[in-house]
Specification:
Blueprint: H1 3-8, H2 23-48, H3 59-64, H4 71-84, H5 87-97, H6 102-128, H7 134-144, H8 160-189, H9 197-202, H10 207-236, H11 238-251, H12 263-273, H13 278-292, H14 298-308, E1 320-322, E2 328-330
Antiparallel strand pairs: 1-2
Helix pairs in contact: 2-6, 2-10, 4-6, 4-12, 5-6, 6-10, 8-10, 8-11, 8-13, 10-11, 11-14
Length: 337
């Protein structure tokens, strides 16, 4: 079978049929739709993001330019390394939560495999730049392992939907942080924010800038996958979806910040570099997610949440919708003949 044939036979979003939409029927349709998201995601991941931290950015360039990195940048990268090291805890917790959902288990494993290379990338950046020695990295990682990350530390992570919702937010926030750090590193290297003509010609950015570009591509792809999963939940279980969105949004914080060994230096670096703040989170993470979900902003979201709990549970998926301003529309049932 050709590759085109495989694509043609990939799972598609189920069509809305004239059948009773029981909770079981909606769950079955949701699972089929999530499988379609996974197949599409996996195909693109293998074709466009199949990279190795040991081979696909220049450690030689990272070493040559390492002395140009400031102390704040080094603290940021070290903090990123610590946070990424908790991926294993996240994967294990997720597999337990999703053990009866084959598709979501596979997504968790694929996500974990891709995330595993991010910590390695930051380890290589620190060592190649001369910012940290092998012994210092080993001692740092040993200290990281003394604490265990628990999903119950974050609001909403006790359900499959909550897990996807949290990941949707966290991945977009991480993408933003990595993009901003990439631009900062380029400035310290003496490079413009955008790739130079030489970088464009060779197909990669210089040193650690390329590492941040590649990891950033992973993060925004992960965000896109979990966004689609949340959108599917909204389609079939809107009341549950908006209740979960509200819980996650209200209680959201980046994972494991309270655990990382260099927590004080990391947070001070975040403040000094103005990398992240509540206002930045609202502008660069929260509001873009709401727009992707089809809402104009937070006021529209709160309006949608307010009335979502009152939506009928037995209506067909295409019979309920919301406007950009957060107002719900319920199509009348056709007359029964």
């Amino acid at each position: 079978m050709s590759q085109r044939d495989h694509t043609a036979n990939s799972p598609r979003r189920p069509e809305i049929l004239d059948v009773p939409w029981t909770p079981g029927a909606k769950q079955s349709a949701l699972e089929q739709e999530v499988l379609g998201h996974y197949v599409e995601y996996f195909d693109r991941a293998m074709k466009t993001r199949n990279w190795s931290p040991w081979h696909d950015f220049s450690l030689t360039e990272t070493e040559e330019l390492g002395s140009r990195l400031t102390a704040d940048t080094v603290s940021l990268v070290e903090g990123f390394l610590a946070i990424e090291e908790y991926v294993a805890d996240y994967v294990v917790a997720g597999l337990e939560l999703l053990r009866n959902d084959r598709t979501r288990r596979r997504i968790q494993l694929q996500w974990g495999a891709e995330e595993a290379r991010h910590g390695t990338a930051w380890e290589l950046v620190l060592k190649s730049s001369g910012a940290r020695s092998e012994a210092e990295i080993e001692a740092f990682l040993a200290e990281v392992q003394q604490q265990k990350w628990d999903p119950l530390q974050h609001a909403g992570l006790d359900t499959p939907l909550g897990s996807a919702t949290y990941a949707m937010v966290q991945e977009r926030a991480t993408y933003f942080n990595y993009q901003e750090t990439r631009i900062r590193i380029r400035a310290e290297y003496g490079l413009p924010a955008l790739p130079t003509q030489e970088e464009q010609a060779r197909g990669s950015e210089v040193g650690a800038s390329e590492a941040f570009r590649m990891v950033g591509q992973d993060e925004i792809a992960h965000h896109g996958l979990f966004l689609k999963i949340v959108q599917s939940y909204i389609r079939y279980f809107p009341s549950l979806a908006f209740d979960t969105l509200n819980k996650v949004f209200v209680g959201f914080e980046m994972p494991a910040l309270r655990f990382i060994p260099n927590g004080r230096s990391y947070l001070r670096a975040v403040l000094r570099t103005k990398l992240y703040s509540a206002n930045i989170h609202r502008e660069k993470v929260h509001e873009p997610i709401l727009r992707s979900l089809g809402l104009d902003g937070h006021a529209a979201f709160k309006k949608a949440v307010e009335f979502a709990a009152e939506l009928p549970a037995d209506r067909e998926p295409d019979g309920i919708s919301f406007s950009k301003s957060g107002e719900w529309t319920i199509d009348p049932r056709p007359d029964v003949v």
